[in-house]
């Protein structure tokens, strides 16, 4: 038994098959009915998709659907109402209304996706739109604006379509460059908008140049609109349409990918390309110099704005990396269990303490502490309890040391302490006060050595370590200096 196709797949396949069939339909009422049937089916599919999938913020989808439906009404009037020679045609009303509804729907959708806070993608879309605006003015809008026979109303009506197409270009470019979900439904909806713009710009170009694409050429352009109706209907039927209107999460400056850089580069080269073309074709005369200058200035300022955003992004990333590096550096010098300085930090602190003691001619005493019978404690009570002993013991010891003192974990159950400004006798007294603070009934042995002002840090540590071994040999639970035995 064949698996049932999802509704959106069936609609897409059936619609595209009809597009292929439409090329062979006669250029009469049957062809018109076929066209309008697909357009109406696309609008109905959008309504069904909205009702079935119930997206959050459905207002955007209803506005987009209303824009599509207005285009359908305009098509029906265009095919069946007499055209005449009037400047303002009946079908202009639904067509122009359709532009407004689609732009409004896209703005609502972009706001829900959080693009309203993403200034970098807005700037990118404006760069692209500025390039289209320059081309539209030079090749589509200016020739109409200079056609006095149309009259003011006729000129405004002729200019309104490419102007509204530019507004739609800006919205579509913003949608395609902004963050957010990019699933099958998203690309189907984007396809609708892109192919409609392609069809509009082709017909506008053909109208201005009096180019006749012929029956087949006209049918092929018609197929772009039909593809748009079908793609939008399939996108609305797709369950993924719900995610298109969801927020994209925290916004950040968009990275300048290679594809984006190439697209923006091509857009900014439009102005010099038009300038070169007019200079070449006009024998050095540039007819649209002011428009080209204006377009160049706008795009230059937008590029500067985009560069500023990228510089700020790099600065923010550098600050974040520096902060992370500081955190990693700090973490690399801390023992993860006791949160005391580790052996790496100790190796850096000892030479610094020796230099300070030599510079200020102050005493410096080093102590090595070792928990007594820690392995037996671990084997008896378990490693988790042993870890708790290490944490609680070091916390108790550190709480009774001065801020200038450094207590570090040297390894395992062995710890070292730097006691600047402390004599051997003062160190013995301090460590004897620390021993009773050791929790869980445990004790520690310690050896201390005072710097002689000449020896290296390793030698000083070695003498304190030897004193520790003498403390252990003497019965543990005691502190011994490098030359004095001090029982508990």
UniProtKB/TrEMBL annotation:
Gene3D superfamilies: 3.30.70.270. The keyword Transmembrane applies. Keywords: Membrane, Transmembrane, Transmembrane helix. The chain crosses the membrane at residues 5-23, 29-48, 60-81, 93-110, 122-140, 152-177, 184-206, 226-249, 261-280, 286-305. PANTHER family: DIGUANYLATE CYCLASE DGCC-RELATED (PTHR45138:SF24), REGULATORY COMPONENTS OF SENSORY TRANSDUCTION SYSTEM (PTHR45138). InterPro entries: Diguanylate_Cyclase, GGDEF_dom, Nucleotide_cyclase, Rev_trsase/Diguanyl_cyclase. PROSITE patterns: GGDEF (PS50887). Residues 362-484 form the GGDEF domain. This is GGDEF domain-containing protein. It holds the Pfam family GGDEF.
């Amino acid at each position: 038994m064949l698996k049932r196709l999802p509704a959106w797949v069936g609609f897409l396949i059936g619609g595209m098959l009809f597009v292929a069939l439409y090329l062979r339909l006669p250029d009469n009422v049957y062809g018109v009915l076929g066209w309008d049937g697909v357009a109406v089916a696309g609008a109905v599919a959008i309504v069904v998709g909205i009702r079935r999938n119930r997206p959050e913020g459905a207002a955007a989808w209803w506005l987009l659907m209303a824009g599509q439906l207005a285009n359908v009404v305009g098509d029906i009037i265009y095919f069946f109402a007499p055209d005449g020679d009037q400047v303002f045609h009946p079908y202009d009303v639904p067509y122009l209304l359709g532009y407004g509804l689609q732009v409004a729907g896209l703005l609502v959708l972009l706001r829900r996706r959080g693009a309203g806070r993403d200034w970098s993608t807005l700037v990118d879309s404006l760069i692209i739109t500025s390039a289209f605006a320059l081309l539209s003015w030079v090749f589509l809008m200016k020739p109409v604006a200079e056609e006095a026979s149309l009259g003011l109303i006729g000129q405004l009506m002729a200019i309104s379509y490419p102007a509204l197409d530019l507004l739609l270009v800006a919205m579509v470019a913003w949608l395609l460059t902004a963050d957010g979900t990019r699933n099958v439904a998203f690309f189907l909806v984007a396809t609708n908008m892109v192919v409609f713009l392609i069809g509009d710009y082709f017909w506008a170009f053909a109208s201005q140049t009096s180019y006749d694409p012929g029956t087949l050429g006209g049918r092929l352009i018609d197929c772009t609109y039909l593809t748009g109706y079908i793609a939008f209907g399939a996108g609305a039927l797709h369950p993924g349409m719900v995610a298109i209107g969801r927020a994209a999460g925290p916004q950040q400056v968009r990275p300048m990918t290679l594809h984006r850089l190439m697209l923006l580069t091509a857009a900014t080269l439009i102005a010099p390309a038009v300038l070169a073309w007019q200079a070449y074709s006009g024998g050095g005369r540039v007819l649209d110099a002011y428009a080209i200058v204006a377009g160049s200035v706008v795009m230059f300022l937008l590029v500067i704005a985009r560069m500023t955003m990228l510089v700020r992004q790099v600065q923010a990333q550098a600050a974040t990396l520096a902060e992370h590096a500081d955190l990693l550096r700090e973490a690399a010098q801390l023992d993860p269990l006791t949160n005391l300085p580790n052996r790496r930090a100790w190796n850096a602190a000892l030479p610094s303490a020796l230099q300070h003691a030599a510079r200020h001619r102050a005493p410096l005493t080093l102590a090595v502490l070792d928990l007594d019978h820690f392995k037996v404690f671990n084997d008896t009570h378990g490693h988790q309890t042993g870890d708790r002993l290490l944490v609680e013991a070091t916390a108790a010891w550190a709480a009774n040391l001065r801020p200038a003192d450094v207590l570090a974990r040297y390894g395992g159950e062995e710890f070292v302490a730097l006691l600047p400004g402390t004599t051997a006798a003062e160190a013995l007294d301090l460590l004897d006060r620390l021993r009773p603070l050791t929790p869980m009934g445990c004790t520690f042995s310690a050896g201390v050595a005072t710097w002689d002002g000449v020896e290296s840090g390793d030698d000083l540590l070695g003498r304190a370590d030897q004193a520790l071994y003498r403390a252990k040999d003497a019965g543990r639970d005691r502190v011994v200096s490098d030359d004095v035995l001090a029982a508990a």
